[in-house]
């Protein structure tokens, strides 16, 4: 799968949603966080009139995170129901969640929620939102996000999206789904391979390489109006697009001069500039969180290792030293952690490196891992692996304690990328 890290194709196509997928992802969670916060969640009042049950979605989100212990109240409570917080504290809950769902005259739903702190005997949060029938899952995810943030101090990521590639027979599909694997939609169907989708920082565009012209060409696709721009169509391989944090530029790997080297280009395809110039393979560039550096994979030391250089080019410093084969660098949103795939004793596994201390942590126990991608809050990493000789997706917390497996019966799943926070 990764024997030739520099020959992997990078071709992605996102032409707008063209149909519903035939199967949702199935999520299985194991492990819990170092500490779990006990939260009582009451059934939302009148939610049975809605096509989606808010309570169940919120519970599933929080349980999947691994950091909450859900206490079922056994009853229905709206945001206006009088409560005795001391009583809930006595039941072992540190927080209580209540809410309601009301159908409006125009067919939309008014979803309200309230979060209370039983320890401090106070209100922590609460809000109302209006959602159409097709947006009720998103409304529930936003409630779970708020609970996660108020109780952990870290922004929730349940209302974000993921993208991945499914292969079924001779067909490749680029699919987009909610972070929990639900609400799957097909962005592209193709008889050509599709891998390595790359979200823009604002979540409105996808960079990709398509082989539709029988050669690799880099495009940027606007997902709102379906317009696309050719970013790189040079002689040789045009591959590995990734975005700068401000969305103004992309880093690429091009072989226009013979050897694959790292380049940067403006998001409209102008201003191409070469950053590396070696007799080796320089590929898989990734901007640092602050946009000041580019991390990339190079074989200049004899085997693939990860290096870092200024985003304007210049001398590069080697970053990975453990193991003889390290590829696919991905930076955490806070810039403190590097995720990558390392081959050791014949196993391709996911590792995380604390860039300040140099401490390394193996996060997976499988043997054919690839394509790591951080959640936008930096607390989880999604990656592709194999289960029973079929491609599947996995999610692991950065401390390795919480693990999830996302599978489908519709085919192999590869090339995950976790989208940004949405406004």
UniProtKB/TrEMBL annotation:
Which Pfam family, any one of them, does this sequence belong to?
A: TolB_N
Where does the signal peptide begin and end? Answer: 1-23
Q: Which UniProt keywords apply?
A: Cell cycle, Cell division, Periplasm, Signal
User: Which InterPro entries does the UniProt record give?
Assistant: 6-blade_b-propeller_TolB-like (IPR011042), Tol-Pal_TolB (IPR014167), TolB_N (IPR007195), WD40 (IPR011659)
Q: What subcellular compartments does it reside in? A: Periplasm
Q: Where is the TolB N-terminal domain?
A: 25-123
Family, similarity comment? Belongs to the TolB family.
The annotated subunit structure for this chain is: The Tol-Pal system is composed of five core proteins: the inner membrane proteins TolA, TolQ and TolR, the periplasmic protein TolB and the outer membrane protein Pal. They form a network linking the inner and outer membranes and the peptidoglycan layer.
Q: What does this protein do?
A: Part of the Tol-Pal system, which plays a role in outer membrane invagination during cell division and is important for maintaining outer membrane integrity.
NCBIfam families reported for this sequence = propeller_TolB
Provide the protein name: Tol-Pal system protein TolB
Q: Which gene encodes it?
A: tolB
């Amino acid at each position: 799968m990764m024997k030739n890290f520099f020959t992997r194709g990078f071709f992605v196509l996102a032409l707008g949603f063209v149909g519903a997928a035939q199967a949702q992802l199935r999520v299985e969670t194991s492990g819990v966080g170092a500490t779990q916060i006990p939260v009582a969640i009451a059934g939302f009042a009148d939610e049975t009139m809605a096509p989606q049950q808010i309570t169940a979605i919120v519970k599933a989100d929080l349980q999947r995170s691994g950091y909450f212990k859900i206490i079922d109240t056994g009853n229905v409570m709206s945001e206006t129901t009088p409560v005795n917080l001391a009583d809930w504290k006595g039941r072992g809950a540190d927080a209580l969640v209540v809410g309601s769902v009301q159908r409006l005259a125009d067919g939309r739903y008014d979803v309200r929620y309230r979060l209370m702190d039983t320890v401090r005997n106070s209100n922590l949060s609460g809000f109302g939102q209006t959602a159409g029938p097709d947006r009720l899952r998103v409304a529930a995810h936003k409630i779970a996000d708020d609970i996660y943030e108020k109780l952990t101090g870290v922004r929730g990521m349940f209302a974000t999206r993921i993208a991945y590639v499914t292969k079924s027979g001779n067909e490749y599909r680029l699919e987009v789904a909610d972070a929990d694997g639900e609400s799957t939609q097909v962005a592209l169907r193709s008889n050509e391979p599709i891998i390595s989708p790359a979200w823009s920082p604002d979540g409105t565009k996808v960079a990709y390489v398509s082989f539709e012209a029988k050669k690799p060409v880099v495009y940027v696709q606007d997902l709102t109006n379906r317009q696309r721009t050719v970013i790189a169509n040079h002689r040789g391989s045009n591959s590995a697009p990734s975005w700068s944090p401000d969305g103004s530029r992309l880093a690429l790997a091009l072989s226009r001069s013979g050897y694959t080297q790292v380049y940067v280009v403006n998001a409209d395809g102008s201003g191409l500039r070469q950053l590396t110039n070696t007799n080796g393979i320089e590929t898989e560039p990734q901007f640092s969180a602050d946009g000041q550096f580019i991390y990339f994979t190079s074989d200049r030391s004899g085997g693939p290792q990860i290096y870092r250089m200024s985003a304007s080019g210049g001398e590069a410093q080697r970053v990975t030293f453990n193991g003889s084969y390290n590829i696919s660098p991905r930076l955490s949103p806070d810039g403190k952690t590097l995720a990558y795939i390392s081959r050791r004793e014949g196993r391709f596994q996911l590792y995380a490196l604390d860039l300040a201390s140099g401490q390394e942590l193996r996060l997976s126990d499988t043997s054919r891992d690839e394509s790591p991608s951080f959640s936008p809050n930096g607390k989880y990493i999604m990656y592709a692996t194999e289960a029973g000789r079929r491609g599947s997706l996995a999610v692991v917390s950065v401390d390795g304690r919480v693990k999830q497996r996302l599978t489908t019966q519709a085919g192999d799943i590869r090339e995950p990328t976790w989208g940004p926070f949405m406004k």
